[in-house]
Design a protein that fits this description.
The structure holds 2 protein chains of 2 kinds. Chain A is α/β, with parallel strands linked by helices. Chain A folds into 3 domains: about 260 residues, no CATH class; about 80 residues, OB fold (Dihydrolipoamide Acetyltransferase, E2P) (Beta Barrel); about 80 residues, no CATH class. Helix content of chain A is about 20%, strand content about 20%. Chain B folds into 2 domains: about 170 residues, no CATH class; about 170 residues, no CATH class. Chain B is built from 17 helices and 1 strand. In chain B, about 65% of the residues lie in helices and about 0% in strands. Chain B is mainly alpha-helical. Classes of the chains: A alpha/beta, B mainly alpha. At the A-B interface, β19, β21, α11 and α12 of A face α2, β1, α3 and α17 of B. β21 of chain A pairs antiparallel with β1 of chain B.
């Protein structure tokens, strides 16, 4: 049965520079990169192409030695121009110089009725070989799903509540038939339901309202209402030993396209947003696109941080960086590497301009109405301290989980305690707001990932 | 502003690695960050890219501001009590000056002693100086009698900071409330200086006829027959212990604790800013009232018969509820635990007041006792969260 869930806890960070609903196709990036670092659970990536090789869109170019069979493919056709490695020869990026006209590796295509009759093993094989499989993320651990598992249900978050998040109705316009085909494929993998969770306060995008064989649930509330982890917790929580798969709607569409048209298509819309961009809007690109050409003419100033993703969970990639595998947005904000004088903008200043979840002395942002847009920079706004404040994390985690105690259990490396307190139900992104609001400036997300890794190894 | 920055940049190399005063880097740093929030930025990956505007300095400053009404009222009241007792009659300004003369040295000694110890430990342990003492250093003077010898303030502060905090690892690690420990230390080490006729500064001046320096709690505890209310009105100053005087705080007592009104202003600041727990503050008051009602039912002596709402305005209950029980480190950490913790502090306070004539003020021992039990309360709250998760699996 469709559920409607109201969440009271959470916090919206309303940043300046939201992308306008228009798409630019004028700028076409030349190079593209596949970055093993985009995949949280990847342990030993191995490249199977060499510099100078020619590849097509959908040609496998690397895999994880610890999870053989799952291929990661080239987003475009062209020449492998660089295999970039870091310390200890850690694989960082495989760069591809794109052809003018993209050629696609050909996979089997099916009609809609064929897809219904397709058996799960054939479907799985095509998904694994073509590079669409990494779209499936499993919980617990928030890593690429193990093809051997059978999930109890599949979750798709139909909206993004992060700061400056792209509008899914715009992002996935006219992709209805691919989405439906993707759902039909995914249905084969689980006996449970495929849940699509939507923002209760927004109009239902047609891509979801027309779809069959899915369970639509509505969520009302502030961020992190759009996080799939929060949604799972309220609809079909994960207990010890259970597995749930999650996908972004883009992944479902990509899978659908693979089976309907027989190609791995990484083309997507990406929102280029943030206070330091002149005209924030959408761009039509392929996955892993180089951001250099797109943002170069758009920067208001040069001392900026370019983040692939959003400000809570994204990665700083630099002005010459590449779009992350799972990202549909790039955020550009000012760097904050300046000292702040105590009275004018430091810890004793009185201001409405600097956003705070708290209402401590001088931080008057709560007086602004909810529509106020903020320009936030990357300054830490203070130094790391021991945990002192209590009761704050609990206000931004809309789950029956005790975040402070879970974090302490991870720091103490207490496995039983971590499990009992719900480590299987969370990913970094679900506690990202705790890190944002933390008075003592702890690295909450790193702690969560450390805990997840400990549980995987343990 | 620019010249401070320039000066700091000029002297900084002396404190950095290889500098002349390398050992004292964290002391330098504490001062630099007092003026300038560092230029540190967020990590490039694996964490948030932006951070909330709050930091611990600002949070502690908010708590100190919440204490200012108590401090200012306390300064005036020390003067007021003096002029009442001596019958001299003083103008508003005279009372302030007299009060400040006695109160400010206590504040200075408390901060000087505590910060010296904090700096010493930061230097030895090579860690940043934590802002926690900025609050403790103000709390300690406010719970001292105005007549307290300054050397005792220094001794109590040193005892509390070292034995209640630093031996456990510093701010954030302590089990007991540091300020309450300081007071408890004096209470047991130098009982004559912190009980009896110490609540009014007489300064050698002769008192008015019939004068007594007893506090409301002392009178209530020593009333043998009749009602506590009658005992209050038959005091040397008949209006002294009326409910409104007790609420406003024009009574003898520790420097900052007499005014329930000032404490409530502080409570409003703490609750509104989200820094003090409303759960704890409300349940302490509720618990005290509840226990008062229970004693009313028993009614074995005049103190038990005293209307329960008098407990709210007598002694240090309000100050303790607002500023001591809400200490986030030594109190309970879970939201559910805070209800239980506050309720028990309130009940225990009244229990100790009424039953134990040796300790007329119960809040100090109630807070310290519940500090010890806070982890136990949290333990059961956390267990129930775990049980919910387990039971979900079997449904």
């Amino acid at each position: 049965m469709s559920k409607s869930i109201k969440l009271k806890k959470g916090f919206n960070i309303n940043l300046a520079g939201k992308a306008a609903l228009q798409t630019s196709t004028e700028i076409v990036p030349d190079t593209y990169a596949l970055k093993p670092t985009d995949f949280a659970g990847m342990i030993r990536p191995k490249v199977i192409v060499k510099e100078g090789d020619n590849v097509k869109a959908g040609t496998p170019i690397l895999f994880d030695k610890k999870a053989e069979g799952i291929m990661y493919s080239s987003p475009v056709s062209g020449e492998v121009v660089e295999i970039k490695r870091g310390e200890k020869r850690k694989l960082l990026e495989v760069k591809i110089l794109a052809d003018k006209q993209i050629e696609y590796e050909s996979y089997n295509s099916y009609s809609i009725s064929d897809i219904e009759n397709l058996d799960v093993e054939t479907a799985k094989k095509q998904m694994l070989n073509s590079g669409v499989w990494p779209n499936i993320i499993q919980r617990p651990y928030a890593i690429v799903a193990n093809p051997e598992d059978t999930p109890k249900s599949i979750f798709i978050s139909g909206f993004d509540s992060h700061p400056l998040a792209p509008d899914y109705a715009y992002l996935f316009k006219d992709q209805d038939k691919y989405f439906q085909a993707g759902v039909e494929i995914l249905k084969k993998f689980t006996k449970g339901l495929i849940h699509v969770n939507l923002d209760g306060n927004a109009e239902v995008p047609s891509i979801f309202s027309q779809a069959k064989d899915i369970q639509i649930n509505k969520f009302f509330g502030k961020h992190p209402a759009g996080n799939v982890g929060v949604q799972i917790h309220h609809i079909d929580p994960i207990n010890t030993g259970e597995i749930v798969w999650t996908l972004n709607p883009f992944g479902v569409i990509q899978i659908g396209k693979l089976f309907l048209e027989g190609k791995y298509d990484s083309s997507k819309l990406v929102a280029i947003a943030g206070s330091e961009i002149k005209e924030p809007k959408y761009y039509s690109v392929y996955g892993g696109a180089s951001l250099e050409k797109i943002i170069n003419s758009q920067l208001k100033q040069n001392h900026v941080r370019v983040i692939s993703g959003n400000v809570l969970t994204g990665v700083s990639v630099g002005k010459k960086g590449y779009l992350g595998f799972y990202d549909h947005m790039v955020t550009i904000i000012p760097e904050g590497d300046q000292q702040r004088f105590v009275l004018t903008d430091g810890w004793f200043s009185i201001t409405k301009k600097r956003l705070s979840f708290h209402r401590a002395f001088g931080l008057l942002s709560f007086l602004n109405n909810g529509k106020e847009e903020y320009v936030l920079d990357t300054n830490m706004n203070g130094q790391k301290r021991a945990f002192v404040m209590t009761g704050a994390f609990e206000k931004v985690v809309p789950m029956d989980i005790l975040p402070t105690h879970l974090l302490k259990a991870i720091m103490a490396e207490d496995f039983d305690e971590m499990e009992a307190l719900g480590i299987y139900e969370v990913a970094e992104e679900d506690l990202a707001l705790c890190e944002y609001i933390d008075v003592s400036k702890h690295d909450v997300q790193s702690i969560v990932r450390k805990g997840i890794n400990l549980m995987r190894e343990g | 502003m620019k010249f401070i920055q320039d000066f700091l940049h000029k002297v900084r190399p002396n404190f950095e690695k290889g500098g002349k005063y390398e050992k004292f880097f964290y002391i330098y740093e504490a001062h630099e960050t007092l003026f300038f929030t560092p230029a540190d930025t967020t990590k490039s990956q694996g964490g948030v890219q932006v951070r909330d505007a709050i930091d611990l300095k600002r949070m502690m400053m908010t708590v100190i501001l919440a204490m200012v009404p108590c401090l200012l009222f306390g300064i005036w009241n020390v003067g007021h009590q003096h002029f009442l007792a001596t019958g001299e009659g003083g103008a508003f300004l005279d009372k302030i000056i007299f009060g400040a003369w006695y109160v400010l040295p206590v504040v200075v000694v408390s901060y000087a002693t505590g910060l010296t110890i904090e700096f010493t430990f930061a230097t030895i342990r090579r860690h940043e100086v934590n802002e926690g003492f900025l609050v403790t250093g103000m709390l300690i003077p406010l719970i001292m009698p105005p007549n307290i010898p300054l050397w005792q303030v220094a001794l109590a502060t040193a005892f509390a900071v070292i034995l209640a905090k630093e031996v456990f690892g510093g701010t954030g690690m302590n089990i007991l409330n540091v300020a309450m420990t300081a007071r408890a230390f004096l209470y047991f080490a130098y009982p004559t200086d912190i009980s009896g006729e110490v609540w009014t500064v007489l300064d050698g001046v002769a008192t008015v006829e019939g004068y007594s320096g007893a506090t409301a709690l002392a009178i209530a505890a020593s009333t043998q027959a009749g009602s506590v209310g009658d005992a209050f009105t038959s005091n040397w100053n008949a209006d002294m212990f009326s409910y409104s005087s007790l609420f406003i705080g024009t009574v003898p007592g520790s420097i900052g604790e007499t005014s329930t009104l000032a404490c409530l202003i502080g409570a409003a600041i703490l609750i509104f800013s989200g820094i003090g727990s409303a759960r704890i503050i409300l349940t302490v008051f509720f618990g005290a009232y509840l226990m008062g009602l229970i004693f009313n039912l028993a009614g074995a002596n005049p103190f038990m018969d005293m209307p329960a709402h008098y407990h709210w305005v007598m002694g240090g209950l309000a100050f303790g509820a607002v500023f001591m029980a809400t200490d986030p480190v030594s109190g309970t950490h879970t939201d559910t635990g805070k209800w239980i913790y506050g309720l028990l502090i309130g009940m225990l306070t009244v229990l100790i007041r009424v039953f134990n004539p040796a300790y007329p003020e119960g809040i100090m021992l109630a807070v310290l006792l519940m500090n010890v039990f806070a982890p136990l309360i949290d333990y059961y709250v956390v267990q129930s969260n775990k049980k919910r998760r387990l039971s979900r699996a079997t449904v």
